[in-house]
Design a protein that fits this description.
Radius of gyration: 11 Å
CATH class: Mainly Beta
Strand content: over 45%
CATH architecture: Single Sheet
Distance between the termini: 19 Å
GO cellular component, one term: cytoplasm
Family: Belongs to the bacterial ribosomal protein bL33 family.
CATH topology: Rubrerythrin, domain 2
Protein name: Large ribosomal subunit protein bL33
Strand order of the largest sheet: 2-1-4-3
GO molecular function, one term: structural constituent of ribosome
Structural class: mainly beta
Order of helices and strands: EEEE
Keywords: Ribonucleoprotein, Ribosomal protein
Bound molecules: zinc ion
């Protein structure tokens, strides 16, 4: 049972700054506020396929 890996991309500049391992049971779309070094601030990050 391997957890799937998800890349989190900045909603402002589109950079994929984080990779997380997510529970495959989860259904809703992931949105997290994280620091983007390209934007220089905390921005919303969304999962990418
Ligand atoms: Zn950014």
């Amino acid at each position: 049972m391997a957890n799937k890996k998800i890349a989190l991309a900045c909603a402002q500049c589109g950079s994929r700054n984080y990779t997380i391992t997510e529970n495959p049971q989860r259904q809703q779309r992931l949105e997290v506020k994280k620091f983007c070094k390209y934007c220089g601030q905390h921005t919303l990050h969304r999962e990418t396929k």
